[in-house]
Amino acid sequence: xxxxxxxxxxxxxxLLLLSAAAVSHAATTYIQNVYGRxxxxxNGKWSAIVDPYDAGYNMRVFLDRKxxxxxxxxxxxxxxxxxxxxxxxxxxxxxxxKYYEGTVxxxxxxxFTPTGHQRHFLYFAGVSNRCKVYLNGQLIATHEGAFTPxxxxxxxxxxxxxxxxxxxxxNTRRVDAIPAMSFDWWNYGGxxxxxxxxxxxxxYISDYFIRLDKHRSDLLLADVSLSRPVAGQRxxxxxxxxxxxxxxxxxxxxxxxxxxxxxxxxxWSPDKPTLxxxxxxxxxxxxxxxxxxxxxxxEKTKVLxxxxxxxxxxxxxxEEIAQRMGRATSMADAVALVTEAKNxxxxxxxxxxxxxxxxxVREAERQGLMVWQEVPVWQSIDFTNDSTLRKAQQMLRExxxxxxxxxxxxxxxxxxxxxxxxxxxxxxxxxxxTGKEMDTTRLxxxxxxxxxxxxxxDEFVMHDDFYPNLDLVGINKYMGWYAxxxxxPSQIRWNVAPGMPLLISEFGGEAxxxxxxxxxNPDSWSEDYQAKLYRDNLRMFENIPNxxxxxxxxxxxxxxxxxxxxxxxxGWNRKGLISDQGQRKEAWYIxxxxxxxxxxx
Length: 601
Known about the structure:
Blueprint: H1 6-20, E1 39-41, E2 44-51, H2 56-59, E3 82-86, E4 103-112, E5 118-124, E6 130-135, E7 138-144, E8 150-153, E9 161-170, E10 195-201, E11 205-212, E12 219-226, E13 234-239, E14 244-249, E15 255-261, E16 276-282, E17 285-291, E18 296-299, E19 302-305, E20 308-309, E21 312-313, E22 316-317, E23 320-321, E24 326-327, H3 331-344, E25 348-351, H4 358-367, E26 370-374, H5 386-403, E27 409-416, H6 422-438, E28 443-448, E29 452-454, E30 459-461, E31 472-476, E32 502-506, H7 527-541, E33 547-550, E34 558-559, E35 572-573, H8 586-600
Parallel strand pairs: 21-33, 22-25, 25-26, 26-27, 27-28, 28-31, 31-32, 32-33
Antiparallel strand pairs: 1-10, 2-3, 2-4, 4-9, 5-8, 5-10, 6-7, 6-9, 11-12, 12-15, 13-14, 13-16, 16-17, 18-19, 19-20, 23-24, 29-30, 34-35
Helix pairs in contact: 3-4, 5-6, 7-8
């Protein structure tokens, strides 16, 4: 475990906030655990103007036309505009916006009453994919990245009474973006996660990281930052259920750090997902939330959870409700997704291929599922672009800051299906360095699709220069679907990432629910073929000496505009174990039985 001095910790936070300026005009301070703070929801129906040519900027549609001089003529009007749900994507709310990529202007009014010596922040949990935020006609924030939150302090820009909030949202794919021009999921646009007006004390608890030492179960570590650099402030961390009370004092940077020996702490695990009510108290602020504690590390080819080898029984899913054909946005959606993973027999979920909303992460933790969470560095990223690297670094920082108190988050994923090039390796090395500067208590991972069967060696191999830098290697391999079997599955040997834990992070094939046919022919698109493919792959996996787990692709059929088979796909990726209507395919039962046997061992 690498320990940072309080000065270095404060410096890291300052570096994070300064680097955010390249991507976001956001807050000068951070808000940890925003759902545990006093806030007013700004969710609901927002007015929306579709602007495919970005004409709204010249029209200055971010100004309130009602408050401008009478007699002027304006070619826009939010009062008579389309209404869209926030949070929500625009693609699933209007048929004409199903495939839309461009700008939509969102607007809503809200009332504000001044509250004295308090600070006020607008908090956006996620806007897809880039946005500009205007409050009462003034640009106050920009942000890029659909899957991480941002906040901006607005106390000096709010007026007593009516306020107008306008957000220009754009989801156009770009070469320098993350993800870039091509990706195998729907390009949902909109304000897809919660919006809140958060009220905090003048000096508040801006950040904290409460966790166990990476290796020791009896050593509790705590770092707490105030929003202002005030020295000598008394900070108390209490965990009554574990008999813990830590008394800390802030330094000149407003940071307090400490460590405490603990004996009564029940560690979190999938079988016993224990969470403790934890309270952090400062002179003018108190924050309480549920926090779990665990140790996660690797030993040769094994993943150790709380010091014991664990086989990762995983599955992937998208942040999508298939029956609604739209983004998952609520706690009810999170419960539906996570519960289906739990029903399958999983102890892990891979949140593909981006950082999913906080409801999903917290529900996974509550139900006892380890989480593999990754930034969307997927395939066609421009690894030669320094601006793209900065975006990736910022997305990883924002992810770690939001979720590092979630003990279920065991794996930080930095890439998926990227090619072995010098530019990519330099890019990922910088991204990995960024992550480890913030958190060394998790495993850093990535998924690769570079393994292949070498006929001369008569085994699967992989040549990649970067993977040895990771803690665990994921392999995506679609034997029986995109790749033909070189021999009987029971006879296939693997020699990939020897000496390291290897997770089969993706495998599977497509099937249309209720369709039956030749189990030897992928063109049948049948449940029979998908089921046989699963049986064959599971048999092959028995020959992988360093296998630490598997995660089939994917739990649910999901929307993808790149899936063009007019009869069997119709804009859906049909690799789900569960159909778009919630029906379990035959392969679901095969995986369920396999996981039940693994669980009982």
